[in-house]
Every structure is written in C-alpha cells, then in structure tokens.
Design a protein that fits this description.
This protein has 124 residues and is of the alpha+beta class. It contains four helices and four strands. It has a four-stranded antiparallel β-sheet with strand order 2-1-3-4, covered by helices on one side.
C-alpha cells in the first residue's frame, strides 16, 4: 500500500508505520509552520473505457455515417450485461497495454481513508 500527503507518494517499505512516518517527516520539512497533515492510502488512477460509452459512441458514429439507417436496423440495441462486461475487459486490456508501451501511464490518483496527524505531537 502506498501512502500520500500533498503531492508526495511513499511506498510501503515494510510497514504502514514507517511509510506514515516518512510522510510526516516530509510534511514537517516542507511546511515547518504546519500543525497537522492528512495522510491516506494512495490509489493510482487506472484509465478505463466503459462498454456502455463505447457502444453509444459506435452507434452515434454509425448513425452519422449511415444517415440514420443504423438506427432503423437497431444496430447494437440488444447488447446484454455479459457482452458489455466482455467488451470492457478486453478493450481496457488493450488501452492499458498501449498506454504502458508508449509511456503514458498516469502518475496521479486519489487518496482514500485519510487520517489527520498532528505534526507537533511528541509521537511524531
């Protein structure tokens, strides 16, 4: 698990406590007048495409290209949940593979389960 404060990320190098201590030390060094800091679990953003979005996009493009004939034929109107899930799974594998190949993996994410830490306490 990675822990984060502000824009800094720290890998869990063996224990949760050591990662959090690194965050606290960096926060103290960067903002000496700060009294507290929020630290939470860092989760990297994983790009994804939903099956629903992809099908709707394909239908819109087909409608434009076919001058409405695709809609008359109800093309892609009967996609079930299993098909959406299969589409999402396979498309996202390809998307992530291409992003990784060309160095476009995101280096940002969200911080969850935040906890407040006092920077001036004896423990820290």
């Amino acid at each position: 698990m990675k822990y984060r404060w502000s824009t800094k990320r720290w890998s869990n190098d063996g224990s949760v406590e050591s990662s959090i201590k690194k965050c606290i030390a960096e926060a103290k060094a960067t903002y000496p007048d700060a009294k507290e800091v929020y630290i939470g679990e860092y989760e990297q953003y994983k790009p994804f495409v939903t099956g629903c979005w992809l099908i709707e996009h394909l239908k819109e493009e087909a409608y434009i290209e076919s001058d409405g004939i695709s809609e008359e034929q109800e093309w892609l109107e009967n996609i079930n949940d299993e098909e959406y899930t299969a589409l999402e799974t396979e498309v996202n594998k390809v998307v992530r593979k291409i992003l990784k190949k060309y160095g476009h993996i995101p280096n940002f994410g969200t911080v969850k389960n935040n906890k407040l830490y006092k920077l001036n306490s004896e423990e820290n």
